[in-house]
Amino acid sequence: MAVRSATRGGAQTSLRSRIMGAVALGVLLGCVFAWLYPHGLFKSDPDVERRAVSKYGAQVGSSECESSERVKMLKAEFVALSEKNSELKKEIRELTEKLRLAEQGKDNAQKQFLVLGEQHKAGPFGMVKSLRTNPTVLPDESVNPRLAKLLDSVAVRKEIIVALANSNVKQMLEVWFTNIKRVGIPNYLVVALDDEIESFCKEKNVPVYKRDPDENVDSVAKTGGNHAVSGLKFRILREFLQLGYSVLLSDVDIVYLQNPFDHLYRDSDVESMSDGHSNMTAYGYNDVFDEPAMGWARFAHTMRIWVYNSGFFYIRPTIPSIELLDRVADRLAHEKAWDQAVFNEELFYPSHPGYTGLHASRRTMDMYMFMNSKVLFKTVRKDAKLKKLKPVIVHVNYHPDKLPRMLAVVEFYVNGKQDALSPFPDGSE
């Protein structure tokens, strides 16, 4: 029993010795490592750390650059989309306007059909007469309320003489309206293209209308020559027709000797004076073209007529008339062309492949009643019988010395001075 107790005590002493030895060894090894590795056994390499930091910074910088470029790209895309959006809005507006006009045209066509009435059977031989007078449009005062109010006070039976003028033609304009007043024509109006003409007309108690500012029109109106100003009338007259008024368009190089409204037929969309100087040239003729090389078929028949004068014509407020004004105005806006040539081409060219002609009726005025200056100076003044005729108007369209010839016409027809026309040559030499 004593022996077992001694043995157990020795074993416990040996275990404590081993534990103490292990602790001592651990402390010793800790001191050795602390001395050998004062900064720690697993310290990172500074170069590696710097490279890591540098790499991270580069990644951050690269990310910032990419973000900036992305912002710029997004801004550019936004601007492009905004511009595209504006273009699309413009196209929508244009298409909407075209649709409105198409609907308006359809409505007008339906109204015209109603006006024309029911279909009829053809009558006996020689008794069939087609419709020559197109129905007038329904007046639309919303187009220009100010002009509508003015025309209501000036026009007579929905008819009016209209002339466009700027300060370049001031002297001729005065001769123009002085003779209109002398004849006693009440329904006339000057469309003033600049402030000077507006003031001048008001001073002379002449009915005058100045349009609202329009950059496209005003730039030509104030500084343009005769042809440029002449081309504006097709745009300006449209409003008159939309308001339901028939217009006798007049250049200012015209002397009025009678009231023209007493001598109109009013059976066509357009009734115009002619640049022709004889019955053949003014009213048309069969002009035979000879080409000997064709042998048996050497002769070809052609129909010819001298052009209508775009400086004096009567136009009724019908759909074909408004279409005529639109066509001419559009072509003059895009082509370098003389307005009178375009006016006649649109009136006379027939429909053919690639082109639809204008379905407008037309009448040529009596060339001795509505006289051009070629007829007067080349023929009438030399013929004793023709000199006794008193024309409705004389248009000094063939000669550049307009003012002195206008004054001579007044002297001859108004004051009875028989030799007033003698000093002038037939032409412009």
TrEMBL record:
GO terms for biological process: cell wall organization; root hair cell development. It holds the Pfam family Nucleotid_trans. Keywords: Cell wall biogenesis/degradation, Coiled coil, Glycosyltransferase, Golgi apparatus, Membrane, Signal-anchor, Transferase, Transmembrane, Transmembrane helix. Residues 185-403 form the Nucleotide-diphospho-sugar transferase domain. GO terms for cellular component: Golgi membrane. The chain crosses the membrane at residues 20-37. It is a single-pass type II membrane protein. It is found in: Golgi apparatus membrane. Its EC number is 2.4.2.-. GO terms for molecular function: glycosyltransferase activity. Belongs to the glycosyltransferase 77 family. This is Glycosyltransferase. The lineage of its organism: Eukaryota, Viridiplantae, Streptophyta, Embryophyta, Tracheophyta.
